[in-house]
Queue: 2 jobs
Job 1
Amino acid sequence: MAERIDIDGIDKVYPGGNRALKQVSLAVEPGTFLVLLGPSGSGKTTLLRCLAGIERVTGGSIAIGARVVAGDGVHLPPERRDLSMVFQDYALWPHMVARDNVAFALKRRGVSRAEGRATADAMLTRVGLGKLAERYPSELSGGEQQRVALARALVGDTGLVLCDEPLSNLDADLRERMRIEISSLVRQAGATAIYITHDQSEAFALADKVGVLEKGRLVQLGVPEEIYAAPASPFVARFTGLAGELAVRIRGGDRGDGTVEVEAATRSSVRPFRARIGHSGPTGARGELMVRPTAVRLCAIDGDDHHLVGRVADVAFRGRGYEHAVELSCGTQLSNVFAERRVERGESVGLRLEMSGCLVFPGDGAATIGSVENAAGGRLADAPPAESTLAGALQASAVEEVGSWK
């Protein structure tokens, strides 16, 4: 049965002094699908490992339901936290067929061998693998192995499912199909899910709530629409998808509707336009404009409804239409500019900006989109590698039980 998760001010400091988590607090209601989003080194994997019990917290506490599982001298091991996990590398037993991999989760709960195998068969059928129950992991494709891992996580009915970037090793088409399967199966089971990823489109598609981490801190928590429409900082805006950013001049103050009139501080500017004030709005005459891809429209350059002019630097066919990269005279590039018709490279175009997708933050010499990974600090030097997952701990603790159930 799903239970509330309370994470209260947890810290994690590794030997050498690297602080991977800094006073992270959040509450997850039963049945919520929470996605933790952030680049490498942001602390999302460390947070999941602390919740799973593979890492000890340095400070703060974690409670699952009424039980404190970490903090104040308490540290329950993974097998006593009543949770299951779906791993990036599947973590299947290579010498067990799919049925036995799934049923092993039930064996640890004291279920008989016959009942465990029957329940495992039913769960494999549920994930579309009923006919492959007798196959070993080496005989399954990556997507099939991931579905076995998902079946194993759900069959125990733990109420809490942790997902460690489970789709990152799959191709794009399979990743989308598996995303739908994970979403459907977890919600049908009524479980609470905490899922980590660095892919913002995956996060928005899956989540009831999204938590964004930066350098070990939880910098924003909210529903996907809130994270996208009202990012708490330029970092959150960048990491959740921008066409680009450019310096602007503020032409007038807030009219009371949360918007200001701005104009691009470059020769590419044609006329002023209105933009929404970011969470920390501009305090002077200059600001940094964050532009969502959905806010940019291509226009004829001889029209009268565009705000900027530029030159098409690249164009890519995307099936439903074309995505363009447009370079402004100042060298700034706006990418992922969609249009149903193709505009050739080198052609001059007008750009109309929609207020709903333009956010103004203080003009602080913000980094470009490409530097988001570096801005997040990269991987913490003394943190254990992501590949060192809970799978190893669980398998080590269970290895002696394998033979007794055969």
Job 2
Amino acid sequence: MRIVNINLENTGLELRGLCEKLAEKASGGLVIIVEPREEILKALTEAAASRVSEEEALAKLAGELNSLAKGIPEDLRKSVEAEIVESLNKIIEYLHAEKKAGGATPRGLPVMLNLLGNTVARVFSSHLNAIGVDTKWVTAGQAGFMLIEDYEPPWSHHVSLVKPDRLKNVSKEVLVVSGRSCVDHEGSEAFLKKGMGSVVAILAASELRVDEVYVPKANGGIYTADPWITDKARTIPSLSYSEALELSRLGEWVMSPQAVELAEELGVRIIVSSIQEPFKECTTIGFEKAVEKQIVKAVAMIPDMSILTVEGAAMAGTPGVASAILGEVAKRGVSISMISQDASEIGITLLVKDRDLDMALKGLREGFSRQRLIKRIRIQRGVAVISAVGEGMRGTKGVAARIFSAVAEAGVNVLAIAQGSSETSISFVVLMEDAEKAVKAVHEKVILSV
């Protein structure tokens, strides 16, 4: 039995060749967890909220689904196209019903998202059937998974395998699972948030006693740096769970932080492969290959960030100021990527996404408008976070000096610095215009110079 997590963000829309490679191992049993692209899910969500027109959204949905169906033989393609049209018509009906009700409801939107996710899974299943592999598909809910605490704050949104017998019953041969189409504790339809499909894959592997989950990528493996930034980037043979967790927190990645954390807890290896050879190891994430001589294994960048610095002499020695500042920002739904506080306690620096800066500012100004704790708020847009990651950094002297010497030699000014509590990463902030230079400097002077 093999478990494969197919996220279309990683693989792209050309499914025919990938399915042919997957079919080569189908005889031993295969469970494929399929996740749609976020862009297409967002198009539907925006239409439900009346932020884009129905016509525009449906054109995107139809284009995506038809692209996925490309390569299916003519004798099967008509039935697949009919399924796509049926799903789109149902989505239109729900959109109209939701708008009559005054907008997308907490119950209505998941139904539409599930329709889309299920259609993607059915198209994937049709590719395998066309090759001659007897395949069936189910939703994650039908496979025994359940959304936990759907209406609690975002951090409680999780998925659990509550009916393992269902999974065992449906995974006898080749199974395609719509990885984010689930149910809640009442049996109502629920759509899992981004990243939860990979959690479903890890839970399935653990329950079915499979040691690893394969995650194919278009360019294969995890790289020491973004290949689009430096042509010297190379594949990392192995990462520890801690290193993978740090990298997964830095933005779009092969698996969610929750999935990496769960994989470590359950002892499931993650094999990052390529769509050309989906069962060939490019990067292995796990325990046994975690210890290597490489001190810094990768450097990553998060672009389009903003610095927000809160200052005031009255902040010094006042208990609860940091908590209050973070609380006001959190009330506006803004996630903070990095925090730094002056030793004098008169200043706290926060790093947020550019698009969230105005909302964070509004929260602070409204929250502290009647208090005299904060004297000024300074902002700087257009910055990027650069993070160097490697478990060998823990307890190794001089790593930070090497990193910042390399950055200084490249003529890049560092605006803020933070180190992860695990000591497996060092992050710093630079202007967007200097970000690529900083990545190249760390990659060439620290990672490749070993």
